[in-house]
Design a protein that fits this description.
alpha/beta, Arginase, Chain A, 2 domains, 10-stranded mixed sheet, 4-stranded antiparallel sheet, globular
């Protein structure tokens, strides 16, 4: 399908002159600048596109203006020593209705992912994550979503889809292809005990801000297990990211956000990334857009440091460990990559549930292995086992 019909080219005056800046990102990225020269994405690794859509935002009108401001800062950053193969497809022509925009985002993502391209969405409001998810339904793939967010965005069943309710709509969507959802960095006073209990009943993973910040290394297995990473800029504290109407005093520091995104880029499983809710109208000297640009830089840095060592098809290059949990009458099999020293653990699944084959090897850390050695059940293993059992 010709996806060029969905896009408007970038402003040639604003984004067309990087030839004299040889070491800049803008010089190495193929940009859509003229109507009759839509870039090919054949053989491309990453495709960036803006979605200037905020009709689904809650108290953050104006976040639709973010894509070009982020680009301006991103293109000015310096390149690293990588064989960049990246295109910027421009900005999506938003639909007459919000549903039309969702449909366009889904169609574009399906076409890009079929070609093995990593789509990077510059939002816009975070309800666009719903459109990202539906693309996997079109590809008939069960999917894991990780969201860096101060809240869960479950909403209510009666509520229309918006940036505060998109997760609830994904959970209720039929047919459902969601295998797991992980929230990274929720703040308890924004979610309440009832929503935490609901996440537990759904066997979703939720990691409190303080828990995550106490050991940032433990974030890596969480994002390594995600097909989609959705990053709400409100998860970052206001002092580091003031460009959002809903910004609050607590959250991640900017360097922590960059670390999370780099972990995501390094994951061979990640096939879609979106950054949302940046609002230039509330920003201070474009500080939030600067941070978003640096996060994109780290995403790409992670991507070009992928190890291609997922033990799904071949176990060559892995050390296998078996740990018996006598009191649970269970044996857990661990795999450690000799290339990256990353860990996975094997979760059994019934032969009649082939759709879960790609999820039965759960990314974990050395701490999970240590937990098993103490004859304690690793929480990650138990969560995945329960989910497969009840699905």
């Amino acid at each position: 399908m010709d996806i060029s019909i969905f896009f408007d080219p970038l402003d040639k005056v604003r984004f067309g002159n990087y030839e004299d800046q040889k070491s800049s990102i803008g010089n190495v990225i193929t940009r859509f600048l003229e109507v009759d020269k839509f870039p090919s994405f054949e053989g491309v690794n990453i495709a960036i596109f803006g979605v200037e859509e905020d009709r689904g935002s809650v108290r953050n009108d104006g976040c639709s203006q973010a894509p070009d401001v982020i680009r301006e800062k991103f293109f000015a950053l310096k390149v690293a020593d990588y064989p960049y193969s990246i295109v910027d497809l421009g900005n999506l022509r938003v639909g007459e209705t919000l549903a039309d925009t969702y449909a366009a985002v889904t169609t574009i993502m399906v076409e890009l992912m079929k070609e093995g391209v990593l789509p990077v969405l510059l939002g816009g409001s975070q309800d666009l994550t719903f459109a990202q998810y539906v693309a996997y339904q079109k590809l008939e793939e069960t999917v894991n979503i990780a969201s860096v967010d101060a809240s869960f965005d479950l909403g209510s069943t009666e509520e229309k889809i918006n940036s505060n309710s998109f997760l609830g709509k994904i959970v209720l969507h039929e047919p459902n292809f969601l295998f797991n959802f992980s929230n990274i960095g929720y703040q308890t006073y924004f979610v309440g005990h009832d929503q935490i209990e609901l996440m537990e009943r759904l066997f979703f993973d939720a990691y409190r801000l303080g828990q995550v910040r106490a050991d940032m290394e433990e974030v890596e297995p969480i994002v390594r297990n995600a097909d989609i990473l959705s990053f709400d800029i409100t998860a970052i504290r206001q002092s580091d990211a003031p460009g959002n109407c809903n910004a609050t005093p607590n959250g991640f520091y900017g360097e922590e956000a960059c670390k999370i995104v780099r972990y995501a880029g390094m994951s061979d499983k990640l096939t879609s990334f979106g950054i949302f809710e940046i609002n230039p109208l509330f920003d201070n000297h474009d500080q939030t857009s600067h941070l978003a640009a640096q996060m994109l830089w780290y995403l790409i840095d992670g991507y070009y440091n992928r190890k291609k060592d997922v033990p799904l098809k071949s176990k060559t290059g892995f050390v296998k460990y078996r740990v018996a949990l006598k009191k649970d009458d269970q044996e857990i099999v661990f795999y450690k990559s000799t290339k990256s020293e990353r860990w996975w653990m094997e979760v059994p699944y019934p032969t009649n549930k082939v759709r879960y084959h790609r999820h039965h090897l759960v990314p974990c850390s050395y701490k999970d292995y240590e937990t098993a050695l103490r004859e304690e059940m690793p929480e990650r293993w138990w969560q995945a086992f329960q989910k497969i059992a009840v699905s």
